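Working notes for the structural subgroup meeting. M.R. asked for a predicted model of this chain before we commit to crystallization trials. I am recording the input and output together here so anyone reviewing the notebook later can reproduce the run.

Input as submitted:
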Amino acid sequence: MNIAIVLNVIILIASLLWLAMESGFEPFIMTLTSVITLTGLSIKSNRFRKDGIQGEGYIQKNDVVCPEPKKDTEVELLAARFKKSLELMNEGNSYSPFTIAKLAQLMKLHKIGELEKVFNGEEEPSFEFISHFCSTFGINKNWLIHGQGSPYSNQERTNFDPLEYYSEIVRENPNRIYFIMNNSDIGEAFILLELSDFKYKILQRIWHVSSHVGGGGRSQIYGLYKLIKKLKQNGHSFKCGGRILEPKVFERLFSGNVFPDAILSRPSYENPWWDDFTDVHGKYPISSNYEEWYGKGFSYAQSVVRERIESEGAKNSSGDSKRVD
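Returned structure, recorded in token form:
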């Protein structure tokens, strides 16, 4: 209610008192009722601009004036994402769930309260603190700070040729190296590194182990073969593992919207397809089953590798002959 309305109400009340003294009580009651009605309408109209749009702090729903919902502050939104990260880490983990106290211990903080206040939105964390949290648990910093991307997506540069990841894999020295393939005709595949029990890294590049490839795709198939062979030859095969996932699960894992352990810990997904893929000459006793197990696209990918090996062998033999001559 503005000052003009208040002054008008005071004048009317004074007039009513004078009227009551001059004319009696009944006219006083009738006039007072009118004043109250007009005052209520004035207050309501003051909440809206003349163009019918609600005034600041109010919204209209089904002809009812309601206060605008409170918008969360940046600190509250950040706290919500901290809580979401913990929720994801505990998805399907009922045996030994993560707690704020456990996360604080893994971060080597002096006090549990340092992290607890951040989770509750009581204290704004420094960017250094956020970086430490993300580095410890493999969280995407852009997601945690700005809500952009997904919790476990990797923003680093990707490599076209799978073999180019060899030096990075060795440098990271992971506990496990997972070769993940989609149970689809296209045969999408990517690599995921387990750096600790609570930290994972997705190598954010997909290759196709199938016939759905062009010249560049066939080159990538051969690069994947050479990467796996090099890891095996240099003593890393004991770290390697494979998974074949249904499309929805595959997409959720690759997109970084799930804590990787929630998928990798399921024994039913374990599959040695990555090792069978290197058996391009069918030397394993089980080789006759590959097409039945993995599909025709898998067999095609193996044929691509065989052709490359034969082509390189022919070039090398030709080079040796020229040197002899």
